[in-house]
Amino acid sequence: MKKKSGFTPTPIYIAVEQVNPHTNILVCRVKTEDKRFCRQILNSLTIRKLVRGFTLVEILVVITIIAVLLSLIMSVLARSRQAAYRLTCLNNLKQLGVAVTTYAQSYDFYPVCVPPDVNEKWSDFLADKTIAAGKELGVPVSLWPFHQTATLYNCPILNKAGCDISYCYNYLAGKRFAADEPVVEPSYIPPTPPPAKQKADVRLLAPEKVKSPGIFILLYDLPIKSNIIIGPDSNVLNDLYHDIDPDDYRKVETFAPGVDKGYLGYAGPHVKGHSILFGDGHVKWYKGWSDSSMSRGPQ
């Protein structure tokens, strides 16, 4: 009778030695006297990486990098938005310049701005054009038949600030005085119109009388703030943002070439600068006043 061969299990010892700090690999040692079994274990053993979380320092570094990237992106977006707003104003003024030219060709003179009237609102005119019948309501209403586009008067920045009409008219291009205003000729007197068109309370200007149209200002952005002190010797505040005909006339006449800057002396809506329409029809943005590039006087 054959003696059954018994099976004696081979002892196996598995010991964890270390974790590699660079690769996070678990290093184990397998100890057994059965070499064939050892090879089978080694062939089937899968060494896995240990999953390790971020440290506080690493999280702070990542947050800092993200914050820097976001700040750079927001800065670029802000500059792009400002450039788009400025381009909108330049385009508006360019089209208004075409309307001014057409008006002047039709009537021989530039449009005439009028004294403020708190009872007249731009929104009322847009809702009902007949309210202008038999009235002089100023430059925006005078130019309306030549473009009929309400959005041309909207600077995106000033419009958000509650401004009804965003662009200011240089009154030296044409002005009607109120009944209680003394018609005082400025230190520079614009050319006198023909006798048939003269009026005691109106100052008119013909385009051909402008010596340098390329620097003569017609329209420009209103300042960034609505309430502006309009008299050098008075504390009168004029809410230009709700005037149906905003202009830069001052009751105390101070104009002199290169001296009186109108509202161009205040911070404008586009990076503190102003978009300006000139007499020859071109438009340009300026950071500040330039004696060589602009003039409110026609000569």
Explain this structure to me?
By secondary structure, the chain is of the alpha+beta class. It has two domains: 12-44, no CATH class; 85-286, no CATH class. Helices cover 26% and strands 15% of the residues. The longest helix has 52 residues, at 56-107. It is elongated and about 90 Å long. The termini are far apart.
Total number of helical segments? 5
Q: Which consecutive residue ranges, at least 5 long each, have pLDDT under 50?
A: 46-50, 186-192, 231-237
Q: How many discrete structural domains?
A: 2
How are strands sequenced across the largest beta sheet? Answer: 3-6-9-10
What is the strand content? 5-15%
Shape: elongated
Terminal Cα separation, in Å?
A: 136 Å
* Derived structural class: alpha+beta
Helix content: 25-40%
Radius of gyration, Cα only, in angstroms?
39 Å
Q: Major sheet: size, sense and barrel closure?
A: 4 strands, antiparallel
Order of helices and strands: EEHHHHHEEEEEEEE
What's the rounded overall pLDDT mean? 78
Strand tally: 10
Topology diagram in text:
Layout: E1 12-19, E2 26-32, H1 35-44, H2 56-107, H3 122-127, H4 139-143, H5 156-160, E3 167-169, E4 174-176, E5 202-204, E6 217-221, E7 227-229, E8 237-239, E9 274-278, E10 283-286
Antiparallel strand pairs: 1-2, 3-6, 4-5, 6-9, 7-8, 9-10
Quick overview:
The chain has 299 residues and is an alpha+beta fold. The protein has five helices and ten strands.
What labels describe this entry?
299 residues, 2 domains, 4-stranded antiparallel sheet, elongated
